[in-house]
TrEMBL record:
Name the record gives this protein: ABC transporter substrate-binding protein
Entries under PROSITE patterns matching the protein: SBP_BACTERIAL_5 (PS01040)
Solute-binding protein family domain ranges (all copies): 78-442
InterPro entries tied to this protein: Peptide/Ni-bd (IPR030678), SBP_5 (IPR039424), SBP_5_CS (IPR023765), SBP_5_dom (IPR000914)
Entry similarity comment: Belongs to the bacterial solute-binding protein 5 family.
Cellular compartments annotated: Periplasm
Pfam families: SBP_bac_5 (PF00496)
Superkingdom of the organism of origin: Bacteria
This protein's UniProt keywords: Signal
Length: 531
């Protein structure tokens, strides 16, 4: 047994996690990638069910999809994957995919249109958490035999109405769009579950890797697929180890025990910056930090007050101090790297301007409560806002709770002000436009808790119709322009002060090349990695 294998065994692994074992080698094997990451959110590895970050990383490397992203060129948008081409009907409702010939699953079974049909139908029939990404196009258990069907080497899908082709294809890049091996999956069916129980801990894909083992709260091990149609990956094995603490991740990275550390806090990033053999790699992710203001409170519904509040946030001061490079200023609801994203950030801390706007609105001595989850960076942001709001005569009380407690009040429209994050559900601008700038029914009875505009009792100020038009626009360039227009109006009138976009700062060994966490639109990719 090699030194590396001994260290990965039980007793030695425990010693490593404690940070007490002496270094046994200088680096990981040349054909192996070892990643330190928090993976305790994984609950299943069935692509019809997975909706967690770490699980998405795994399945990105295990399954092909009809269309996908190039790990080295995300800006190019979706690209052909298991479908080599597609055609759209004149009415915009039907997309016919031609499957790529000569591609096999890890089992050796050929990838066919029938597998694609089965995979998408299966996701609709199981109706698990991420199924809405497909069912929003009108697919139901009752109609899938007509709306999702194989025809020779072609897969034909028909939506309930015409949507932007880019919208449909972007959604098919999501994890739920993974194509599974029908023969293998159905061989493990139990009581009509379509292989669901088996796929929780096994894989049946055609991707660059197959699942060797998932040990909850410990590790995920992937083995390279030698017959991957894009070529055998250089990293023959990928091990993702659950290391929760930033300090431990840093130690393992410095010793060469891991190639990548993905959950470093700002202090540990600073501590290893410039260290020999280590580089800091930054990628913009899709998470946004924002504050929002309940429109049921009369004072908060005044346009001058909303504008004043957007000038009472110390954007630059925070990103240059305690946020320390892990957030960047972004004042728009689409993250950078999304279709239609803009870089216009017109607001800055201006207390005097805010005072004048509040006076113009006739608001004086206002007292509000901001709900905040008990997370250090959010508490610090709330405290900064409390300070700057006070300079304009607004008292901002901070109410701290668990995520569950704060979200329950927010979803019930019971918070004056909310501070929190939002992450996209799929790689299309509709994912954020449909919640920030869309609210077809603002009544309390609507109970549209999944729509952020509704949570803040905001009728979206005419943006609902603009959002509906944008998601149906088939010209992609024009569609992007429409989101530019929506965001310009949104910044002016919305009760949202969007502040920051997250930056993931990873510590990476210098010999590791082409590692990416997927930017804002995808998940981590391993098959392009070399050493």
């Amino acid at each position: 047994m090699t030194a590396f294998a001994r260290l990965m065994s039980g007793a030695a692994l425990a010693a490593t996690l404690a940070g007490t074992a002496p270094a046994l080698w200088a680096e990981t094997p040349a054909n192996m990638l070892v990643v330190a990451n928090r993976i305790d959110d994984i609950t299943t590895l069935d692509p019809a069910e997975t909706f967690e970050f770490a699980g998405g990383d795994v399945l990105r490397n295990v399954y092909g999809r009809l269309v996908n992203f190039d790990p080295l060129d995300f800006e190019a948008g979706y690209q052909p994957d298991l479908a080599e081409s597609w055609e759209v009907s004149e009415d915009g409702r039907t997309i016919t995919f031609t499957m790529r010939e000569g591609v096999s699953f890890v089992s050796g079974n050929p990838v066919t249109a029938e597998d694609a049909e089965f995979s998408l139908r299966r996701a609709v029939l199981l109706n698990l958490t991420p199924s809405f990404i497909l069912t929003q196009f009108g697919f139901t258990p009752e109609n899938i035999e007509e709306t999702i069907k194989a025809d020779g080497n072609k897969l034909v899908i028909t939506t309930d109405k015409a949507y932007a082709t880019s919208f449909v294809l972007n959604c098919l890049t999501a994890t739920i769009g993974s194509i599974v091996d029908k023969t293998t999956v159905m061989a493990h069916e139990v009581d009509g579950d379509m292989g669901h129980d088996w796929l929780k801990t096994n894989s049946a894909g055609s991707g660059a890797y197959s699942l060797v083992a998932w040990k909850p709260n410990e590790s995920v091990t992937l083995q390279a697929n030698p017959d991957f149609y894009q070529g055998t990956p250089a990293m023959q094995r990928v091990i993702v180890r659950h290391i929760a603490e930033s300090a431990t991740q840093r130690l393992l990275l410095e010793r060469g025990d891991v190639d990548v550390a993905r959950n470093l806090n700002p202090e540990d990033v600073q501590g290893i910056t410039g260290a020999e053999g280590i580089k800091i790699q930054e990628e913009l992710k899709g998470y946004l930090m924002y504050a929002s203001f309940n429109q049921k409170i009369p004072e908060l519904a005044k346009p001058e007050v909303l504008e004043a509040f957007k000038h009472l946030v110390d954007y630059d001061g925070m990103v240059n101090s305690f946020l320390k490079g892990q957030w960047t200023v972004q004042q728009n609801f689409l993250p950078q790297s999304y279709l239609g994203a803009v870089k216009d950030n017109p607001f800055s801390l201006d207390v005097e301007k805010a005072k004048a706007l509040l006076a113009e609105a006739g608001v004086d001595g206002l007292e509000l409560t901001i709900g905040v989850r008990d997370v250090q960076e959010r508490l610090e942001i709330a405290q900064s806002m409390q300070n700057t709001f006070a300079q304009a005569g607004v008292k901002l009380n901070i109410e701290v709770g668990t995520g569950k407690q704060v979200l329950a009040k927010y979803r019930a429209r019971d918070l004056d002000v909310y501070l929190g994050t939002w992450g996209p559900d799929y790689a299309d601008p509709q994912t954020n436009a449909s919640t920030f700038a869309y609210n077809p029914d603002n009544s309390d009875e609507a109970q549209n808790g999944g729509i952020l505009a509704w949570r803040n009792a905001w009728d979206a100020g005419g943006l609902t119709e603009m959002t509906e038009a944008a998601v149906a626009e088939r010209d992609t360039a024009r569609r992007a322009e429409m989101y530019h227009e929506i965001q310009t109006r949104f910044r002016e009138i919305s009760p949202f002060a969007i502040m920051f976009q997250n930056i993931e700062q990873d510590g990476v060994r210098e010999n590791v090349q082409n590692f990416t966490t997927g930017l804002a639109v995808s998940d981590a990719s391993y098959w392009k990695v070399t050493k």
